Amino acid sequence: MKEIKIGVIGSGSTYNPELIEGLLKRREELPVAEIALMDINPERLEITGALAERMVKKAGVNTRVIKTLDRKVAMDGADFVITQIRVGLMEGRARDERIPLEFGVIGQETTGPGGFSMALRTIPVMLEIGREMEKLSPNGWMINFTNPSGLVTEALNHHTKMRMIGLCNSPITLQNRLATLFNISKDRIWMDYFGLNHLSFISKVFLDGDDVTAEVIKRISEGDARELPGYPFNPTVLKALGMIPNGYLQFFYHRDKLLEKLMSSPGRAETVMKIDGELLELYKDPNLNEKPKILEQRGGAWYSDAACALISAMVNDKKEVHIVNVKNQGAIGGLGAEDVVEVPALIKRSGAYPVVMGEMPLSVRALIQTVKTYELLTVKAAVEGSRDAAILALVNHPLVPSVDIAEQLFNRILEENREWLPQFK
Amino acid sequence: MKEIKIGVIGSGSTYNPELIEGLLKRREELPVAEIALMDINPERLEITGALAERMVKKAGVNTRVIKTLDRKVAMDGADFVITQIRVGLMEGRARDERIPLEFGVIGQETTGPGGFSMALRTIPVMLEIGREMEKLSPNGWMINFTNPSGLVTEALNHHTKMRMIGLCNSPITLQNRLATLFNISKDRIWMDYFGLNHLSFISKVFLDGDDVTAEVIKRISEGDARELPGYPFNPTVLKALGMIPNGYLQFFYHRDKLLEKLMSSPGRAETVMKIDGELLELYKDPNLNEKPKILEQRGGAWYSDAACALISAMVNDKKEVHIVNVKNQGAIGGLGAEDVVEVPALIKRSGAYPVVMGEMPLSVRALIQTVKTYELLTVKAAVEGSRDAAILALVNHPLVPSVDIAEQLFNRILEENREWLPQFK
Amino acid sequence: MKEIKIGVIGSGSTYNPELIEGLLKRREELPVAEIALMDINPERLEITGALAERMVKKAGVNTRVIKTLDRKVAMDGADFVITQIRVGLMEGRARDERIPLEFGVIGQETTGPGGFSMALRTIPVMLEIGREMEKLSPNGWMINFTNPSGLVTEALNHHTKMRMIGLCNSPITLQNRLATLFNISKDRIWMDYFGLNHLSFISKVFLDGDDVTAEVIKRISEGDARELPGYPFNPTVLKALGMIPNGYLQFFYHRDKLLEKLMSSPGRAETVMKIDGELLELYKDPNLNEKPKILEQRGGAWYSDAACALISAMVNDKKEVHIVNVKNQGAIGGLGAEDVVEVPALIKRSGAYPVVMGEMPLSVRALIQTVKTYELLTVKAAVEGSRDAAILALVNHPLVPSVDIAEQLFNRILEENREWLPQFK
Amino acid sequence: MKEIKIGVIGSGSTYNPELIEGLLKRREELPVAEIALMDINPERLEITGALAERMVKKAGVNTRVIKTLDRKVAMDGADFVITQIRVGLMEGRARDERIPLEFGVIGQETTGPGGFSMALRTIPVMLEIGREMEKLSPNGWMINFTNPSGLVTEALNHHTKMRMIGLCNSPITLQNRLATLFNISKDRIWMDYFGLNHLSFISKVFLDGDDVTAEVIKRISEGDARELPGYPFNPTVLKALGMIPNGYLQFFYHRDKLLEKLMSSPGRAETVMKIDGELLELYKDPNLNEKPKILEQRGGAWYSDAACALISAMVNDKKEVHIVNVKNQGAIGGLGAEDVVEVPALIKRSGAYPVVMGEMPLSVRALIQTVKTYELLTVKAAVEGSRDAAILALVNHPLVPSVDIAEQLFNRILEENREWLPQFK
Q: pTM of whole model > 0.90?
């Protein structure tokens, strides 16, 4: 069995122990010769790297742990490169969430105008990384976690020749929670699933092969959805849809309630920064040699599990189905063949083969097409530094209520992110 | 030269004299043997019919004028049937415009939720008419003016086998106003034009074959658009689009301003009802034998001219280009082959052949796809009496801000239009 | 574990012991409560049925074996109905292969004009069966073996509401032979595969996840393809294609050689009839209680294995990939969403989900589109009894060299199959 | 009125007097300041140029006639560049028609394998011309007559940024002959028309706006088609199609008869060369100052008329419909948006807007898709010098009966055209 090299770009993330744990848990089926941790922040690199070393040591495996400030070292010859960067750091996210609120618009750091702002900062950096990887690891795979994941994956698929899969913890979280709803193990749940990252629908849920969609909708409508993230939803609309929306759909379907909530409570960025600081402190403890429980409150549970499971499916040519972000190629009717979508795919050594989900229902098709259009315009804006494309992206965003606000919002984002957006001359 | 029969369903409209004038003006190229006027209101039928008789007499032509309360008489053997009905009358329109405002939503009687309400009332009646026409005039053409024109034409194209063309005065008005902007005759203006009724864009304007689009946008942006209906628009966005939006796009692009305006000023329905009453009084004058000038204030200028020009182009197999509402069939990339669109078409005796306008620009594609989706769901709701489809239609409408409001709005519309909406059990 | 009922329509086939063997082999994972054998020929039913009973008895399982002349009994409440009928019997096949040769045209009983003739006879009967099954087994699945399988599956998918999967032994045979070529077990081979039944291409072969397509093509070109059915092919063209054609492609790519061969040697129908008779004799032996080895010469090896594996994958919701004939739905770019194709699909209890194979290469796209067109016209002809559609089907068939021959060929087929083709008035 | 410059590449053609006559006939609506005649053969240039000068002089117009051996002079600043070259001269055509016959395959110099051979020689030269024109006449239009016209237009549309329209005399000839059939003027005939150059169908014929398609098919079937080029066709198939095929379809529909005929009679190239020589002799006469009648026997009647009418429609922004070869853009359903097709188009100063012809009928769709595929592969072969693409092009050609012959045929074509095909290393 061939041993692999994994590179991690942005390993200073406090998520890092989860990834290390995920790899160690799979040591039998997924032998890792080298894991190269890279971050631009020497202190975070050192803290998270040292913890990784202690975890590896405790597990008693032979994996070499490299800590580097040079991303080329991490990518060079890697079989898999995991990217989890945050351009502009958590302070950037705070701005992304705050500025739209000034205009009475939901920010939302992935699927909302906050994600737009983040994408403008992030895409140029990710493209650089992608182009380096084309050379340093031409046969490797990028597994991208970097948010806004849909936009980043869209950009890299169109502007680099690298092989990549975009990954999000949303699908695996939904599957886990549905399993909890029925009090069974998650392997017994199958979801027919289509859409974009953070803009997806479960068109059908199966339990042991039997269709339980109506049952799930009924239980959600009766308030029995504590387990599902981002719920509740209007029951009449849920029943009319006959599908289970990703929790992020709340930002579109219940924008009035969400806006009210966001107006009155501090943004999530502040909370996350606080937890993040506490975690880092914890990681410094030289006796800590495993993932601390408290990490699960951080909000990104199952991220690393999803990644490690995906990598193992590829390495072992498992032909398992994972829900990933890849080019559509006809799997979802109503989106372009080249559009990046979030869809179940058969995972082989040679890549991800989307499984056909059929024509999108009329009831949600337009929303998904609209957000894809917004994504394509945002990618264009980010890559070309086109103000026109940027404004038109916001004009098309369902959360932006008028073209005047689109223009003003873009100007404010540019003003507050000047140093991160050199592409806009 | 074969003489034709024209049937008019809803001839009690105060627009009727304009139609009669349009026909008389073209008497040489378009000889009319019989014009059968039908209305459900005997008084309006008599008033407008008598004026039509006086106009015909003054012109000295041989056209037989029939006044009838039975629409079958009007359709029987007609070469063209002009439909211009208003189910629920002007009072219905007033409700259509008012109810959404209660929820802080623009009503707008054609392209907004007001049009949705109107469509639910109107489509079942128009389908009955269409099915009668299939039998009574299998080789005739319906020319539809009935609003909301896009939705009505969509419904009839999919649920009857009749031959029909939907017509609106928007395109001809835009062409006339562009001509005025350049102080030239309208025949020297050509518009590359695509979209849906009241949701269209002029992608290019040509003057004597030369592209003057940039010049038009510049003049509009400099405030020189007094002549264009529904203007102004945000100049930055206009320039980024590089196209000229139909004035009705204001409801989408500047919904905040428009909503504010509609909140504070009485709806247009009241104004129109007032003018309408005054016109009817005027028409009673037994000495009046021509179209009164004041009719042009009514807002529907060039409607009849568009209709008469279209009918003459068909009768005379002119192969002229008119902008009409017909099935797309590939003319506009990004919309379905069966979707009804508003597009330039070559007019022959045998029908309207759309002229290819190409792929929709990314900047406006999603909006047009969204409104078409809303239209398809609305037609489904109107035809099947499906509450689910009705609510999902509003969920998809860009002017409806949340699914809760979609549900409440539909319930209110249903409540206030109970007698007109028997299809919803 | 729920026990299932399987119905077999056309169980008098000498293949039947293979099916029984396949089921018995899987008794642990696939418990069969009842297998209902039906045939229109009482003698064949009795012979094959008695052998089935002996085999079941020997295996010591509880399966009830029913022998019936009434297909409704076989279908009633069945979880799976296997259809393997031959309208017009083997004599019909002999005619199908002979008549085209009179015109210097290859017959070929599935993908050639012989298959056309067979389809005209078979489709109306299969539609009757399908419509009965809609009622008798609304939740059951038809697994169709009836040839011409592509045409029959196309017809039933469009003209019944039944759930069905078309199955052929071609893909599994190719996979087995590729495994033999590398001297490995078949599970280590994966084929990227697309096309129609008997008109398919392996676009990529993987061995343990590694792409070995070029190696396979090289070995085939060097004559090392004894193992692959229907080979050899022109090596220059094979290399230019970069794909491995199904052996049946020989009829199109090497029609001159094949025609010469068929002209000089007796048709396959005669050979098959001879073996068939011998097998039936053998089956009569009351001491025979297992599948005789000689059956494998019959040409349909792996048929039953494919069927039993498929049924087990469905019953057990295995999410395995099988290559089956189902609606395209976007899996293969360049064919319609509704077109039945042969494609890898994920098999669940709830059905077969095609796996995306992407856009067809330009090099073979037109041939596949042409044969699909021929199929659609043939189905139309068979269902409507349309002579025009029948002649146009043959006009479009790549093996028919001129429209005059298309017309004459159809007339001869009709003349010689008069009693079987009542739909052509 | 702006006077225009016309460049003619390949003006040594004996068609040239027809072009000059066409321009002179339209002098009022189409004032030509300069016509620049270019040919690589000085003698032919001089003969045809001198005749052009005498014709211009006789007409008494101010047009400057330039004779040049340098094509850049002809293109520089031209408003229209007419290309009518023949790479390899008439001797090349003779080879193109002869080589396939050696393999029992119809040659046919445009739509058959003869056209394939011609395309390999011609496309590289036409691409050079196209790229020069991009610079020398960036706002001008190329009107291409160079055969094989479909393939050349396809190549130039995809590999240059030039504006161009491909023109053929087939459509105008069909229209003229249909007019003759009814003994009326051609303006009263309209054809619904779709397909590729020399592979097109008239789906409907209208006389004064009335559908006379059935009448035309009936008269053709009764043998009354002396007037239509390339007829007769099998009447049963004609009736089943319900359309009128372009005469060139005979090569596909009646390949057996055509092959027999071509096998026994000398190729058309010899005949044409003979007439060509006679014409040139005639043109030398210093007293000849008009187009000689005998030119009409040359076979290309109405070519120049089509070109001059098209140029005038553009210059005068006439919005007339002409049948031309341009990008499909959705006009014909079943072909790609970028595929060059032959279709009615509205002609404006700014270009040709295809008129929607709708979905292709199933009966002919596959043939047209197949030939388009062959064209795309041929263009690829010609541009890239790819032997694989060349062989696959022939493998896809409906007239090539096997892949072995495809390979051998390409090798022979390459061998006999060595000096003209430097792109194949």
A: yes
